[in-house]
Amino acid sequence: xxxxxxxxxxxxxxxxxxxxxxxxxxxxxxxxxxxxxxxxxxxxxxxxxxxxxxxxxxxxxxxxxxxxxxxxxxxxxxxxxxxxxxxxxxxxxxxxxxxxxxxxxxxxxxxxxxxxxxxxxxxxxxxxxxxxxxxxxxxxxxxxxxxxxxxxxxxxxxxxxxxxxxxxxxxxxxxxxxxxxxxxxxxxxxxxxxxxxxxxxxxxxxxxxxxxxxxxxxxxxxxxxxxxxxxxxxxxxxxxxxxxxxxxxxxxxxxxxxxxxxxxxxxxxxxxxxxxxxxxxxxxxxxxxxxxxxxxxxxxxxxxxxxxxxxxxxxxxxxxxxxxxxxxxxxxxxxxxxxxxxxxxxxxxxxxxxxxxxxxxxxxxxxxxxxxxxxxxxxxxxxxxxxxxxxxxxxxxxxxxxxxxxxxxxxxxx
Length: 414
Prior knowledge:
The protein contains 19 helices and seven strands. By secondary structure, the protein is of the alpha/beta class. The chain is globular and about 85 Å long. The termini are far apart.
C-alpha cells in the first residue's frame, strides 16, 4: 500500500504479547494485530508497517508507553521516530474517546496511534543517541543504582550495629568509607558480636586486617581496635546478641556484594566513557570527573537535536525555576517534574565546582550574599548556569574556559 495518506502506529505493550493499531490522518482504523514478544512477533510487526508504506526514507511514527526493551530496540532501527508516551498522559487521552471509562489493550493501542495523529508536535521522540552513548548510559545508571544500593545497605548495617554493637561503629569511625571498607567487613565476619570482639587477640586482629588487604600500619591499627573493643560497653542478653549477630552477618554478605558490584561497574565506566567524543568537553568542566561526567552524558545524550535550546535542557534537568500564575497570584518555585538522575548529578557537580572553580565559588557566594538564596537554591542556580555553558560547549565543540564562563564573578573576586 502506498503512502498517499499519513499513517500512525500505536502499540500497547505487555510482558508476553502486544497489541498494534494503525490509523490514517482522519482517525480511521486501518489495521490491528496481536503479536507475541519474540522474533516472530517483531517480524509480523515490521511486515505490517512495510505493508502500509513504511520505508527507510519515509517511516511510520510509533507511539508506545515505554522507552526500553527489545521491542523498542527493533523499532528504533533506521530513522523511524518512536515516541515514549507517559502512561498517565495516555490515560487522559483515553477519556477523549470514551466517557464510559472502558479499557482494553486493542483500544489503548488505538488511543496511542491517535495521540500521534492529533498531538505529535506536543510529544518528544526518543533521542537518536549513538550506540556508544547508550552503552555508557547503561553502565553509568547501573553504577549509580549500585552506589545507592550500597549506601542503603550500609545504613541498615549501621542502624543494626547501633542497636547492639556500638563498639564496631567507634572502631571504624576513623576510616574513610567506614563500614564499606574491606577491613571493617572482615572484622565483622571474624567477630559478629561485641563479646567475641572483646576476646580477640592482637594476632587475630592483625590476621583479619591482612586478609582484608591492608599492608601498612597493621600492628598499630590492631592495637587501636583491641583497645576500642575492650572498653566498657553495654551488652544485649547473650541469646539476643547472637541472634543480632546472625542478622548482621546476612547484611555483611549483601554489603560485600554491593561494594563489589559498585567497583566493577565503576571500572567499566572508566573504560567506556573516555572513548566518547564528548568526554573531553565534559571533563573540561570543573567538578566533573569520569563517573559524574558519564552520568551527565548518560542523561543528556549525544543527539544534538534533542533539545531545541539550553532552556529545554535546563527544564529537563529541573535546574530552572517554574512560574505558576493564576489570577492575581503568582509564584516562582523549583521544578518537581524532572530527570531525577540528571538533577542528582547536577547537585554533586555544583557542590564540587564550588571548590574547583574560582568563578563558580564567586557565583555561589553572590547568590548567597546578594540575593539571599539558601545553600540548595544557590547551588541549583549554579548548576543551571553551568548546564547552559555545557550545552553551548557541546553544540560548538569547545572546551570550558573559566574566563569566558564567569567574567563578572572573577572580576568581582579579584
